[in-house]
């Protein structure tokens, strides 16, 4: 029997397992597909909320800690697995921001480098980016990670750890109880037991919990993205304009995102979203009009009230924990949110105040 049973093998679940195994615990991950192939694979990989000054302070606290952790995490995974998560720290250009003063005030308050720059500066940094307003904002410290490779590297690392077991293509059916206490789960591959359980099922988390009389307000929010195959170096930095962004990869792949759709668990793509994303991309980088769209896909974000994730023990189920509801910021917050949960699981001093994230009965509508 494992010390911990993690339900869900995305980046949140895998990072939780990594931290627990590093601390000497035995961990089993239950994943209905292949680890790292859902929302963790489908996102863009910007290591910051898109407009961080528009988020509640708890999100800012988690994101700032995570941003500082990513360089070390990426280097560790590269050295230990040979798979490069491609952490790139080349800054972000914000175009057409309508609340610049708020943004600059936020940056001063949290000690973040964010400055107003002119069109010449933008052109110097990114000659192929179109700027239609005189001013822009520049955050030089922001980075991005190639999230599919981050998932691959985490999975490869966990497979080498003797204290970690990955049970992939293993669908959970319900919770296993003994004398009224949750002790494990029944799955398509049989029963698995552990001292404590952690639900990290992303957009599917709410579907796993009703049998415990827990109604987690987490819902799927579809996001469609596209990617162009461009000459390497066409764009070097993340560029954000009117809520849409382009994210360059080292091999010239250029991601563009994303839509926000309330469509349940539907992950189909459509021509309307494709046209909208192409239009946004070409407004940022006009040269993309002559480049082919190489990929078009959709993923499901775990939406939650105010985008604040639920992190901690469930009410009346002290041995069942949850880490879900990160909305658009799963990759952004993953290192910090998993560290905060591991602190609770291992009885350590918490990274930050856990109170804003606890899934209390009031938070769950009970």
Computed CA radius of gyration, to the nearest angstrom: 21 Å
State the distance separating the first and last CA atoms: 32 Å
Q: What is the percent of helical residues?
A: 25-40%
Number of strands: 16
Helices and strands, in N-to-C order?
A: EHEHHEHEHEHEEEEHEEEEHEEEH
**Structural shape:** globular
**Classification by helices and strands:** alpha/beta
The number of helical runs is: 9
Strand content: 25-35%
Main sheet specs: 8 strands, mixed
Task: Return the average pLDDT rounded to an integer.
Answer: 94
Unreliable spans: none
GO molecular function: glycine oxidase activity
Protein name: Glycine oxidase ThiO
EC number: 1.4.3.19
Pathway: Cofactor biosynthesis; thiamine diphosphate biosynthesis
């Amino acid at each position: 029997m494992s010390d911990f049973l993690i339900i869900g093998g995305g980046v949140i679940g895998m990072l939780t397992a990594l931290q627990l195994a590093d601390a000497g615990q035995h961990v089993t991950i239950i994943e209905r597909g292949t680890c790292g192939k859902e929302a963790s694979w489908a996102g863009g990989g910007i290591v910051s909320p898109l407009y961080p000054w528009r988020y509640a302070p708890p999100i800012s606290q988690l994101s700032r800690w995570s941003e500082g952790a990513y360089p070390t995490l990426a280097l560790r995974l590269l050295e230990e697995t040979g798979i490069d998560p491609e952490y790139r720290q080349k800054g972000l250009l914000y175009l057409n921001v309508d609340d610049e003063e708020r943004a600059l005030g936020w940056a001063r308050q949290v000690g973040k480098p964010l400055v107003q720059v002119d069109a010449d500066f933008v052109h110097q940094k990114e000659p192929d980016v179109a700027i239609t307003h005189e001013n822009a904002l520049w955050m030089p410290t922001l980075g991005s990670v190639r999230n599919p490779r981050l998932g691959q590297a985490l999975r490869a690392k966990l497979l080498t750890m003797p204290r970690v077991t990955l049970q992939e293509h293993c669908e959970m059916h319900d919770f296993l109880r003994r004398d009224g206490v949750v002790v494990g789960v029944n799955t398509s591959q049989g029963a698995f037991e552990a001292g404590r359980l952690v639900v990290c099922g992303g957009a599917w988390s709410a579907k796993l919990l009703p049998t415990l009389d827990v109604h987690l307000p987490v819902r799927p929010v579809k996001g469609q993205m596209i990617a162009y195959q461009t000459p390497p170096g066409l764009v070097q930095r993340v560029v954000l304009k009117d809520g849409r962004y382009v994210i360059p990869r080292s091999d010239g792949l250029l991601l563009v995102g994303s839509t926000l759709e309330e469509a349940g668990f539907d992950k189909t793509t459509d021509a309307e979203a494709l046209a909208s994303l192409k239009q946004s991309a070409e407004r940022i980088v006009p040269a993309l009009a002559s480049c082919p769209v190489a990929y078009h896909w959709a993923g499901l974000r775990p939406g939650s009230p105010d985008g604040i994730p639920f992190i901690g023990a469930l009410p009346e189920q002290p041995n069942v924990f949850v880490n879900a509801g990160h909305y658009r910021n799963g990759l952004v917050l993953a290192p910090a949110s998993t560290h905060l949960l591991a602190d609770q699981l291992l009885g350590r001093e918490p990274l930050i105040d856990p109170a804003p994230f606890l899934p209390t009965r009031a938070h769950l509508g009970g």
